[in-house]
Each structure stands twice: as C-alpha cells, then as structure tokens.
Amino acid sequence: MLLDLVHHFDDAVDSRFDALRGDPIADRLFYTASELGDFGLLWVIFGLLRALRGGKLNERAAARAILATGVESFLVNVILKSIFGRGRPVREIAHPLPIRTPLTSSFPSGHATAAFCGAVLLSEEDAMAPIYVVSAILVSLSRIYVKIHHASDVAVGVLVGAGLGWIGRRLVPLQPRRRPRV
Length: 182
Fold this sequence. Notes:
Elements: H1 2-18, H2 24-37, H3 41-52, H4 56-84, H5 110-123, H6 129-145, H7 151-171
Helix pairs in contact: 2-6, 3-4, 3-5, 4-5, 5-6, 5-7, 6-7
C-alpha cells in the first residue's frame, strides 16, 4: 500500500517534469544545477565565498558548512544508500547534455541532502540566505528533471538534509553559547 503511494507520487511528479524536458533553457538550468551539486561542490563554493567576505562569523559558518558536507556525504552515500539499495528511475536515457550517473542507490538523493544541509547551515545569520535556499531547491529538483532520482528520493533527501543542517547548527553554533549567571 505505502509503496503504491510512493510509486504514484513519483509518477505524478515525473509526468509534470515531462512538460519541461527538452526545453533548451530548462535543460541548461537543470543540468548545470545537477552538475554543480556533484560531490557537494556548490556548497563548498558558497562556503568559500562566505569565508572570503571576512569576519569570524562568516569564517566559522563556512568551515562548519564545508565540514558538514563531508559528514553528510559519508552518512548518506555510504550508510543510508547501502541500507536501502533503491534503483534509479531510468538506466538508458538520451540526455541532451552531459551528466554523471552515480553508481550508488537512488534513495535518498545525496544532491538534495547536501543542498539542504548546506543551505540550512550557510543561511544562518546571512543576508544571502534566499540564494542558498533557491539554489538548494534547484539542485534538488534537477535530479528529478535529469531522471537520476525518483521524486520521493528527493523529497526524503530534502528532509534528511534540512535535519542534518539543523543538527549541525545545534552541535556547532556560530555564536558562543552564553552561560546563565547565577
């Protein structure tokens, strides 16, 4: 029953993307977003750019996000994906632009987990937060668009990534915690 609902959700979302696929602008946007999301590259770039803006807060936020990208990648790509072992949507598809097809399980989407983990961590106390969030959404949706992930892989990846980002905020706060005076 639950698997039927998941498959129905995946098919419904995929059919919505079919209307966009093949459009040259959409192809360029989503394929580029997908490639930038490989190995958490976009989040490392955003982290480095934040660090270059200077100040202890920006440097700490950047270091935290870049470190979290590595931790998230290990947790998702080595542990979670090996537990679930879900196949990818389509093995043989003619892609209009070059795309790397991962060998790991489809569930959950590592691009979506990295994107939302990075966006949650980098957006704290930063006016650039909307750019991080929009980028995370684009990277996540790109994985459905290029038919590398099922929509449910991405949806769970968003939740896992945001959750890891919030945990990272709690474990490594940007500002030192003040002890209550007694």
